[in-house]
Amino acid sequence: MNQQIKEIVTDLLHSAGITPNGSEPWDIQINNEALYARIFNGGSLALGESYMDGWWECKSLDQFFTRILLAQLDQKIKSDKWLWPKLLWLKLINHQSKKRALEVGRKHYDLGNDLFKSMLDSRMNYTCGYWKNANDLETAQLNKLELSCQKLKLEPGMRVLDIGCGFGALAKYAAENYGVNVVGITISKEQFEYAKQNCSGLPIEIRFQDYRDVHEQFDRVVSLGMFEHVGYRNYRTYMQKARECLKDNGLFLLHTIGGNSTTTTADPWINKYIFPNGMIPSMAQISHASEGVFTMENWANFGAYYDHTLMAWHEHFERNWDYLKEHYDQRFYRMWRYYLLACAGTFRARTNQLWQIVFSKNGVPGGYQEPLFTGVKKRDSEKKTISDLELS
Fold first, then answer.
1. Pairing label, strands 352-360, 295-301
2. Which of 191-195, 200-204, 262-266, 313-317 has the lowest mean pLDDT?
């Protein structure tokens, strides 16, 4: 039976151009022959855990996952009623998580600011950068902030709600460069404390608060990388709350990872180790949730840029591991590397997307004009590199 399982798994990998113990960077190197049975019986969770346990290696995990996804191995065995339930792991990653609010905050975003400082850009953006005319993470993230502000059509004196404000990057940028007042909410204690300090002295209020507990109106609402944590049962509630918080002529910018097909299940490995109850929305789910609530004014996709962003995060993580290993063990290192590179593979294979969607409460008179992004205005002269970060 074990030999049969080995042959099945090996043949499937071969169809994706992957050879166990092969010489290509995307080939896996088997350290424990029990691996085949483990992943056959344990699925996605076993695939990730066996890597964390050192049962297999791969020089280029991102290429490994890209090849598996592009080969659509799940479709090749879907007709086999015996194999299909066993090999659901071939569907791989449903990136990110739905909201069990405080659980998400504790499990992921409260891992430690030292980890995120070592991995992210100097402004601590933990969402996809905008890599048009950008050659480095710092520029890409600055572009993203500027593009988001332009899409919101911010004007001095406006009041903005930032749902899931993270470390305060967008709130700070918008207040400094557009003269707006911002209320940022988060359910991560680490992010809450960091964002308060980061935004000190600016017209910004950072709150430790669930989005459902906001009962005020704003000129603009923005949400970068938060919708992935909501969960499909709460998509409609989320949209209704965003509408409730908008003035009649308001705009809502939703920046979210998206999937090519609808799902209501969580990937077991992502769920256990990265984001509790992780899932990502589809176009249909977003459309259904916003139908009758908003007018959709603009829908943009720059999902390919998330591949670049994740690879840059991985590069920074590897570069700073000598510092981080004083606080995190080798199993964590393998887990985090697997997370970043597997997710990069999903975007490179175009299985996952990154959407920026502009909604209006009542429709923009004459139509919404999408900004023609030409770069960051000269007013923002400060620029820092990863080498400037203080990791202590």
1. antiparallel
2. 262-266
Any catalytic annotation for residue 343? yes
The C-alpha atoms of residue 145 and residue 127 are separated, in whole angstroms, by 10
**Mean pLDDT across the stretch 240-264?**
96
CB 88 within 8 A of CB 44: yes
Dist. CA 235–CA 279, nearest whole Å: 12
Least confident of 109-118, 197-206, 338-347: 109-118
CA atoms within 13 A on the CB side of 313: 27
Predicted TM-score (pTM) of this structure: 0.88
**Domain edges within the chain:** 2-91, 101-385
Instruction: Determine the CATH number of domain 101-385.
Output: 3.40.50.150
Of 149, 199, 245, 343, the catalytic one is: 343
Contact 228, 97 (CB under 8 A): yes
The candidate with the shortest Cα–Cα distance to 270, out of 279, 261, 282, is 279
